[in-house]
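Q: Got a minute? One more chain.
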Amino acid sequence: MKILSAEQIRKADQFTISNEPISSLDLMERAAESLMSFLLDFFPNDTGFLIFSGMGNNGGDGLALARLLHESGNKVNLVLVKHSDSYSKDAQANLDRLPDGISVSEIHSKSDFKEWSKHQVWVDALLGSGLTRPLEGFLAELIEFMNDSEAYKVAVDIPTGLFADDNRSNDINLSLKADLTLSFQFPKRSFLIPSSAQRVGDFRILDIGLMQEFYEKLDTDTFLTHSIIKSIERLRNLHSHKGNFGHAFVLAGFPGMVGAGILSAKAALRVGVGKLTLMAKPETLPIFQTAIPEAMVDTHWVKGLTEIQKLADHADAFGAGPGLGTGDDAKLALKNLIQLASVPMVLDADALNLLAENKTWLHYLPADSVLTPHWGEFKRLIGDFDTYEQAYDEMRVFARKYQVNLLVKGPNSCITSVNGKQYFNSSGNPALASPGSGDVLTGMILGFMAQGYSGLDATCLGAYIHGWVADDLVENGQWPASVLAGDLIEALKNWT
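A: Always. Here it is, folded:
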């Protein structure tokens, strides 16, 4: 799924209106019907709705929704928010369509605010995705009042006060803090940026039938992962054997941190790598061979460059970092590995910390390698940043400069490819906030890369399935706080 700008979404609306053809008023009706259908499925039958309707087309959506809910026998209270001199054409048409018997009140200033019931669902249909300047005056006061309420808040298309594309010039504290956002046809980029995503809550995409023909022609450099996963994943040939699925090497799990290496190795094996060799220190050999009988363990690499070169000649991908440490042995091992590797690498954890201390090494990484920092590790690599929007720009610069794929981990993890395109991961939940979860992800990406997937495809596939497994565990009743990294590896067998 492409992430479109507000201007591109407006053009998609206009294309559908002109070429379906359908009137803008009927398209608004279609949007309101989608809203009502979702709300009635999502909330209990006796739920009451309090709709705050503005005077533009977002307000028109709210007016049409109020009418449809009322005509369907649902309890609706409508608040007309008079923040402008006149209604948009379609909003006025829906105002004129309001039936008798619906409860309507008007507010013109802060003095009109009431103690509306917090037991109703509050629906924000004030301002839409066309907003380009921070809220002020009466509307800012209303949003502050709404945010102070304990009511469950649903935003129509986008929370009022939030910019659709880039909020670095906005005061997001003046936007609605929604519990749920129902966006039409496409998510907005601001839904995925950590600073603004907190205002969106959970978001769902409602199909309102915009024409696919126009959408397919639109150019963008930002995507969601879920729509490409099945096109990436490869089916296994009936006559294949383990030699067809690559040989991965893992430099991880130094003494005292062996568990991280075990998790990464097991994850690589679980996603189907043909052979896996752990580059271990001699004192950890018994632990690894006992914990992972499916893996091979090599301790000769500690002798120097010649032994690492022998391993490099047999590798399809290298992974390094989980439980590596940052001592002299680890530093020398990673430097030698980067120097000799001719196949892509996956670097995480302590490997990233060593890179941050030795940035010249970045120039020698094999092309199409993958770096998987969390936000703290990312800051150590590139330095501090003023806004998250700036950080996403820096990701593109970094990936292009060093020709690597960059996965910055967090909610809606962002994958930046070597050509600067960005893919936001759309799976996962807080169950992934668990020790060792990142080690599992590193192993999964490594396992896919060794099987011949490109760095970008391996990262998108690994990140999505990693999140999907966590979603599957929680949806099947496991308490999110109880999910361990080992549970994720075991549950990989459930991927479909």
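A: The radius of gyration is 26 Å.
Q: Perfect, thanks.
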